[in-house]
Write a structure and sequence with these properties.
375 residues; alpha/beta; 5-stranded mixed sheet; 11 helices
Length: 375
């Protein structure tokens, strides 16, 4: 039987995709440069450019190459059309709300921030979220094609709603970011937990070697854990996998306690809140005072107990530690030493991304989904 040949429409579609992705990687290209970039013949690229211009996805920039006097023909530079639009990346965190508009090149073209109180109430967060997104939209003059939201709270995977669990340090109640953002976005709104996004950003920046099976432990004002297995986040039935605050571990004086209660016993919570006081913890655990060694020992035992359970259940190749106090070199050394003594030792390293990795993960996802949407 003769093999089925691809249709002309399919070939044209594939060519158009290659041209669009080349223009996403580069700000502008001539048809000759597009041919060199894609490995497609100049006539075929020329036809693709014509189709994409007619479709409103590509535009002639009006800029020309230098030609004449032996330099070849004058070439026109083409770029993605402004109508291709932007995607929205949002962070909902105790530090405040951040909304960014990202274009198809991966550039942040608008950014807006709104502060919120701690702990926050749903109505206040919803109002701040609308304000930040509306400001970012005004700055670009465009309605985002889609949105990706990182939230410092558990997220119901079926609804995208934020779930309030006991001792959650950020949001006192439930919130529906997808419903709030729907009037401000043309397409889908994806919501996930901030630690999951941070872990995905860590995975995506590891270009030298595949990072497909690891645990990301977040130690900051809140406690969280993300499981990456076979390159994908494992969210569990309801999306609550990795919520480790109530996992039973070793507390002060060897008592069995929920992980979050260890910090209460050590006096390291913020006043009137279940949030961990990262500044006080770092002072208590890293100062030259003799008591600091005892505090480090207690923290190391508690964290090792949590990691023993995670290792037994998920079998990671690597454990990555992030968060405002978890990334401290002294704390990292304590965790690594404790983990090395476990029956199943797994290497421990600090997160490579430390500047708002959750928003970085949401931004990467927004860009990837936006590019697929354009294509």
């Amino acid at each position: 039987m003769d093999p089925v040949k691809p249709s002309l429409e399919l070939l044209r579609s594939l060519t158009d995709e290659h041209v669009l992705r080349a223009l996403m990687r580069r700000q502008r290209l001539t048809r000759a440069e597009l041919a060199a970039e894609t490995g497609i013949s100049k006539p075929t690229v020329g036809e693709s450019v014509r189709r994409l211009v007619d479709a409103g996805l590509v535009a002639d920039t009006g800029q020309r190459t230098v030609g004449g006097r032996g330099r070849g023909r004058v070439g026109s530079y083409y770029a993605l059309a402004g109508s291709v639009g932007v995607a929205l990346a949002v962070s909902l965190a105790p530090e405040g709300i951040v909304a960014e508009c990202v274009d198809a090149h991966g550039d942040t073209v608008a950014r807006a921030q709104e502060k919120i109180s701690r702990p926050a109430r749903p109505a206040q967060v919803a109002a701040a979220l609308r304000t930040a997104v509306e400001q970012a939209r005004r700055d670009t003059g465009l309605t985002p094609r889609l949105a990706v939201v990182s939230a410092a709270d558990p997220v119901d995977r079926s609804t995208g709603r934020l779930v309030h669990l006991p001792d959650a340090p950020f949001l006192l109640g439930e919130l529906d970011p997808a419903r709030i953002l729907a009037p401000h976005v043309d397409g889908p709104v994806t919501v996930d937990n901030d630690v999951n996004w941070a872990a995905q950003a860590e995975r995506d920046q590891a270009r030298a070697a595949a990072l497909d099976d690891f645990t990301y432990l977040f130690l900051g004002e809140g406690l969280g854990c993300a499981i990456i297995s076979d390159g994908r986040v494992r969210r569990g039935h309801a999306g609550l996998a990795g919520e480790i605050a109530h996992l039973i571990t070793v507390g002060p004086r060897g008592r069995a306690l929920p992980f979050i209660e260890v910090f209460s016993e050590l006096g390291l919570r913020r006043t009137g809140s279940t949030a961990i006081d990262a500044g006080r913890l770092l002072t208590a655990a890293t100062s030259p005072e003799p008591q600091a060694a005892a505090t480090r020992h207690t923290l190391g035992q508690a964290i090792s107990g949590v990691l023993a359970a995670v290792i037994a259940l998920t079998d990671p190749e690597l454990i990555i530690i992030g968060g405002s106090w978890g990334s401290s070199p002294v704390i990292l050394d304590t965790i690594a030493a404790g983990t090395a003594r476990l029956p199943r030792a797994v290497p421990v390293q600090g997160a490579k991304l430390t500047g708002n990795p959750s928003l970085a993960g949401a931004r990467i996802a927004a860009l990837s989904r936006d590019r697929k949407s354009v294509v």
